[in-house]
Amino acid sequence: MSESGSGSGIGVMIEADRDADEISDRGGLDRVYLAISRIVAGHGVSLDHYQRDAVLRCIRHRMHVLNVATIEEYRAMLASDPVAVSGLIHEIMRPQGQLFRDTIVLEALRAVLLLRARETDCQRIWVPGCFDGEDVFTTAIIATDTFLAADEASGFVVFGSDRDTELLRTAQAGVFSAALATRIPPHFCNRYLSRTSDDPRVDYELRRRCQFLAHDAVAQASPFLDLDLIVARNLLLNLQPALHRQVLEYFYAALRPRGMLLVGALEFQLEHEDLFHLVQFAPGLYQRVERKGASPRRGLVRHGEPFADIFRGASTPMMLLDAGFAAVAMNTSASVLLDESPDDIVGMDILEMVEPVDRGRLAEVLATLAAERRARIDLTFAGGQSVVLALSYVQGRVLAELNGAGDDHLRRRSTEQARRTGALLRTIKDGVIVTGGEGSIVEFNEQAERLTGWARHAALRQPLQKIFRLMTPAPNTPHGLQPVPVRDGVSDDAAGELFLLHRDGRRIAVSLRATPIAGDGSQVLVFEDISERKLLTEELAYRASHDSVTGLFNREEFEARAREAHAELRRSGGSAVLGYIDVDQFKVINDTLGHVAGDELLHELAAQLRIHLGEDAFARLGGDEFGVLIMKHDLRTVRPLIDTLLDAVRRFRFYWAGQAYAVTISVGVSAVDAATENITRAMSLADAACFAAKDAGRDRARYADDSDDLPRRYADMNLVGKLGRALDEERFALYFEDVVSLAPPQRPVYRELLVRIRDDDGHLIPPGAFIRAAERFYLMGALDRWVVRHALRGIAALPQDDIVYALNLSGQSLGDDHFLAYVLAELKASAVDPQRVCFEITETAAVSRLTEAIRFISRVTEAGCRFALDDFGAGMASFSYLKKFDVDYLKIDGSFVRSMLVSPSDLGVVETINRIGHEAGLLTIAEHVEDRELLEPLRKMGVDWAQGRAIAVGRPFAELGGGRK
């Protein structure tokens, strides 16, 4: 909506006129106005279409908003700033209706909706020049509320169109300005709008009923047909009066019979009464005039008059005269007989139509007609046609029948044949044109009239190429189209995309079939308007390639465009970069404010990112992740752009429920050029770089060539797929390592169960190669569940002995509220003796999740299981935390054990851990005993058990009869 309502328009106009006078006094207004016109024309808008005073008023308002002192300064701003030009164009073209404030029109609109609801199951409404969609959504709100209040089941769809594609993106997202929302009754706001920020958003169910299309209502004919209502409030207000007729004819062609047009308060007096007549009960509401051939403002036979259908379809030539005996209409038969167009005849006195010698006699007959009511006279028309003219009064008018003199049998037979052919063609819903051997038109049905814009009488005997202008897209031509010759058997399949040029210049998408009917070149053309089907196809294609929340490309479309760009780079050289963008702490917003707030944040943030990323491929990849392909950049030149992007997001604030939330992003960037293996690898590298940025503290970017860690991260991401498949296909195997007592006799007392993965070739992948990736990508919970289930069932199958079997658990599983219940349930289901089971967790995991670890250890030891602290000594506060855990075994970190013979400090650490463990009443286990020379020193210092390659290597658990091979 405009910043100034209609009430302030006069004041603004006076200021604009005063400013114009001052500039004119200096002799500069015409020059400056012409310069501004040229600038605006460079953006696809001709100011010639708009009233000069209205444009000056808009210029003055924009100068005030931008605090520009003179129109010369404003012209200079427009010349250098495309955003300023866009602002002026929006000011000129912005609709200014405020529907909820016009209560009279509002009630009239409700009445129209209810009236049409009784005639159609689904009303079709169009809002041309919809700007950012507010009038579309307002109309949809009124329609929904009207049908609910009246308990009507009528459906509806509201089409919105505008020439500005950026505004249409806002409309498609359903953003409703807060300023307009204040003028909507509160109960409407509560019911149909969701408050997600300063600008509310239209309810999803209401948005489903609204569709948007790029279209210039001033320069192009309507892309919609068979509409029930057009809401075009103040669209004509600033246009030149000469354009009003053209736009109204577009509206007329788009409406179905008795369709309605709603215009603004300052447009109530439409001059073109042959197209629309005012509905008496509502100012601003007009109904489509039903016409056939002649102009209603000169007395066209209107739809609904008792003899209208008889008059139009009669084979007898007829004219309708007003009380002064001037022609107001003529039917097709009369037009053919007299060889005159109705437009040339209508308005002419009948005395002027006949030969001068017959005018005196005809005048005498006309003088007595009022008393006699009927009369007949033989005479000759100016074109030489001899007729018997029968005159009679019908409904206050004079009906003139032109009967051929001499009872011309041949003509009667021809007329009867034409009548039958016409009646048949009128029943066909497609357009039909029949041509003779010489290529001229010999038959033309009503649908052909509608689609070509030519009346039947005017099209007959004309060359086909003049009436039926078939075109196909041609990008290199001035108008983007080139003619298509109509030949035998041509079809839309053969000729590709086809358009029919209407007489008024608009393009109509059609399908065509041309069939020869004789050997002399005669043919029948059958064509169908597929505009709506084409629009629906385009809409479905849009939805298939775009994300519904942000309006950006979706992952599939992004990857396809990226592959195309990569292929082009391979052909022609050059470089590009692929960016992976992740919203930091997005889960916090989603969990605390709800998914509606999360969607709104993504929508607003996407708009912010688009400003800086321009028109390159930009997509929402899923969740809070975005992808962008930036062409003509490399990893060096793109850094300033990425820095600007990060800074812009830091300044961005998300407003929700009266609170402001700061947002940051992490960005990963990889190069794309001819040497790039494929786009999948480039995206994986960018994703890995993004993870590196998040691990480094978020709110930053990482580039795929500046970190030694990135190849490892990329390898981890590749392992994720293998882990997922292994979980789905259960391609895991359990291994075990013996732990022996260092006191004689040295025998196995403890066995640690380890997991391996079989890759696609059947080779085993050790845990060190995939555990890190599983932890990074949150797969450890699923992996731990697999190990627990299969290990417990395997232990239960083994003979009873005094060996303890140990299972490793991750920190992620400790933090899972459901994992403890899972373990207890599996213990019960396996019926294994809990004393045979030990769970190992690393000291680092236990300390980092202290509360969860204490709770887990307590519950599992209560069930009879044992616990071991793994890698003890690697943490920073090992001894202070040891007393918090109720554990049975202390496993001394292998990094100290392995080097204790060459490092006195490591030897001291091992001795200290062993002593503290014994003082706490725990058994100690030395890990990574890789050399048998370590056994004697460990035995002397009193370490209880040892584990490592010097003791035993890992073997399949299946060898014991307890695990799968």
Protein architecture, described:
- With 965 residues, the protein is of the alpha/beta class.
- It folds into six domains: 6-93, no CATH class; 99-288, Rossmann fold, CATH 3.40.50.150; 296-415, Beta-Lactamase (2-Layer Sandwich), CATH 3.30.450.20; 428-535, 2-Layer Sandwich (Beta-Lactamase), CATH 3.30.450; 546-707, Reverse transcriptase/Diguanylate cyclase domain (Alpha-Beta Plaits, 2-Layer Sandwich), CATH 3.30.70.270; 728-960, EAL domain (TIM Barrel), CATH 3.20.20.
- Helices cover 43% and strands 22% of the residues.
- It is built from 39 helices and 38 strands.
- The strands form seven sheets. Strands 29-30-32-33-34-35-36-37 form an eight-stranded mixed barrel, surrounded by four helices. Strands 5-2-1-6-7-9-8 form a seven-stranded mixed beta sheet.
- A hairpin with a 2-residue loop joins strand 23 (618-622) and strand 24 (625-631).
- Helix 1 crosses helix 3, helix 2 (29-41) runs parallel beside helix 4 (71-80) and helix 31 runs parallel beside helix 33.
- It is elongated and about 145 Å long.
- The chain starts with 8 loop residues before the first helix and ends in a 9-residue tail after the last strand.
- The relative contact order is 0.04.
What key attributes describe this structure?
alpha/beta; Rossmann fold; Beta-Lactamase; 8-stranded mixed beta barrel; 7-stranded mixed sheet; 39 helices
